[in-house]
Write a structure and sequence with these properties.
Blueprint (H helix, E strand, L loop, with lengths): L8 H15 L4 H12 L5 H13 L4 H24 L4 E2 L2 E2 L1 H26 L4 H25 L6 H28 L2 H25 L12 H4 L5 H8 L3 H13 L4 H14 L1 H20 L6 H15 L3
Antiparallel strand pairs: 1-2
Helix pairs in contact: 1-4, 2-5, 3-4, 3-7, 3-14, 4-5, 4-6, 4-7, 6-7, 7-8, 8-13, 8-14, 10-12, 10-13, 13-14
């Protein structure tokens, strides 16, 4: 499954330099860290959603480029902060900023990026776009804190799981799609439709990420990693709610007290598979994907809609 890059090739090429310009600083250490981050950034999935959502309804504008930069700035800032929160030494196969420059620099770099994003929007009077995206940052923080709270008890119901991932993961993707549509139309109806589309896609995206914890092939992160971090993912939640009491208690004990024991974590992974947790989560992912694609049928039928459909396919069928 290929990314629909060709449809927005010009936009992505122009975006590269604009993003670099948007984050640069006069402080040498900060510039060194930012260059390190920019060189190792991911596939730019979220800016792709911004550009495709904008082109779906109209033409790319200067506001669209600023929206894509703001989305990527906010996403990068949250990743830098997440590595501190999770005590993570690795990001996308390389040392994280936290691993190389430790806590203080990581927190300050994240703060700097948030500030640069605010300045970028305020200097250009992109108030509606800023409103859409800062609301996503609020939701992301709430989602992280709710997940942290629930990790202490491991008593997580499925509806709470969806609340967590809707805020933690889906909110930024939803806002990227919404702000992208707004940047080319200034139309609230289109922006809301694309917000819902992005939210459904974002939930499917996170469930797919959960499933990687149970993968046999190399997916770019260690299997069982979510269990080690006491994260309650959908396959695990389903298993805890659909197994006998002794097995449930054993799983909870391992996640709470023996989550660094490879053999015991492997047993949990195998139990989740045997209980049907993988199949259940996969079906739920497909359900959200279907809902996202159905929302697109209400939008103009053009090549950019097809590009968004391909992007949804990519995030749910990716191998890493």
């Amino acid at each position: 499954m290929n990314l629909p890059v060709s449809l927005i090739k010009t936009e992505l090429e122009n975006f590269e330099q604009r993003f670099k310009d948007a984050v640069k600083s006069q402080t040498p250490l900060l510039n060194t860290i930012l260059r390190y981050i920019v060189k190792r950034k991911g596939k730019q999935i979220r800016p792709m959603f911004v550009f495709l959502a904008a082109r779906l309804f109209g033409s790319t504008t200067e506001a669209t480029y600023r929206t894509a930069s703001l989305v990527e700035i906010l996403h990068t800032a949250t990743l830098v902060h997440d590595d501190v929160v999770d005590d993570s030494l690795e990001r996308r196969g390389f040392f994280s900023v936290y691993a190389l420059w430790k806590n203080k620099a990581s927190v300050l770099v994240g703060d700097y990026l948030f500030a640069k994003g605010l300045i970028l929007s305020l200097e250009n009077n992109d108030f509606r776009i800023l409103q859409i995206l800062t609301d996503a940052v609020r939701k992301m923080s709430e989602g992280e804190l709710l997940q942290l709270e629930k990790a202490r008890t491991l008593n997580l119901k499925e509806d709470i799981y969806y609340e967590i991932i809707k805020n933690k993961t889906a909110s930024l993707l939803a806002s990227a799609c919404s702000a992208g549509a707004w940047s080319s139309t200034q139309n609230d109806e289109y922006a809301e439709r694309m917000r819902l589309f992005g939210e459904k896609t974002g939930i499917a995206f996170q469930i797919k990420d959960d499933l990687f914890d149970y993968a046999n092939e190399d997916v770019g992160k260690p299997t069982g990693n979510d269990i080690k971090e006491k994260k309650m993912t959908l396959p695990l939640i389903y298993t805890l709610n659909n197994t006998d009491k002794p097995t449930r208690q054993k799983i909870i004990n391992i996640v709470k007290n023996n989550n660094n024991d490879k053999k015991k974590v492997a047993w949990v992974l195998e139990t989740v598979k045997n209980t049907g947790g993988i199949d259940y989560a996969t079906q739920k992912m497909q359900d959200y994907k279907k809902e996202a694609l159905e929302l697109l049928t209400l939008c103009p039928d053009n090549e950019f809609r097809k590009g968004l459909e391909d992007l949804v396919d990519y995030v749910t069928e990716r191998k890493y």
